[in-house]
């Protein structure tokens, strides 16, 4: 009996050692799995590309309604930015910074500061055009002019915008829809806005639109359509028209960053 008791005790000890060893192995596997998960998590978040920060400026705002035609300019700018912001957010690869909320009264200096303080990767300022004759139509945009550090990247972005606007059916004004604007002061002190199709060394040092001056990222001001032309307003200033324009801007942004567009 005593011999049987010793055998039974040894058997129980062996079983206990086996259970302890198994528990250690299980604990080690759990720990190893947790470590692998943490490493994968850290690697994923380290290599995951950060979203591009897109600065959107709905021109004018508040008491400053901008140009007035068949609609007010702020109607076009706010509707278009709303559509574009929604599109960019749905894409998931972009973070949107607006220079102002709808209806907010804020001057150009304040709006620009908001975008620059957020270190945006790109600035798009949306406007509507006007013409006293009511006959002018189409799209044009203004990148940061020659002589600025960000001129070439702004021009490249402007090319993307103009191409997408043309594909959307908008008429490109001038040579290719891209122009330069300068505010030139005459000898009598009066300031006049001068539009140039190409770089002009005689005036390129003069200031351009404030939103495209003194920024270190691509910056383009877009004149989406003529508010004084009913056909233009119907095509690119109405609710549907602003959505079409917003889609063109979205595609231009994707093209500029060499990213595949994501279907709606």
Give an account of the 3D structure.
The chain has 264 residues and is an alpha/beta fold. It is 44% helix and 17% strand. It is built from six helices and seven strands, in the order αβαβαββαβββαα. It has helices at residues 2-47, 73-91, 108-117, 151-167, 230-236, 239-256, and strands spanning 52-58, 94-98, 122-129, 140-143, 180-185, 191-196, 219-226. α5 (230-236) crosses α6 (239-256). The protein is elongated, with a radius of gyration of 30 Å. The mean pLDDT is 89.
Judging from the principal axes of the Cα atoms, what is the shape? elongated
Mean pLDDT: 89
Oligomeric form: single chain
- Low-pLDDT stretches: none
- What are the secondary-structure elements, in order, as H or E? HEHEHEEHEEEHH
Percentage of β-strand residues: 15-25%
Q: Largest sheet, described in full?
A: 5 strands, mixed
Total strand segments: 7
Indicate the percent of residues in helices: 40-55%
The number of helical segments is: 6
Strand neighbour order, sheet with most strands: 2-1-3-7-4
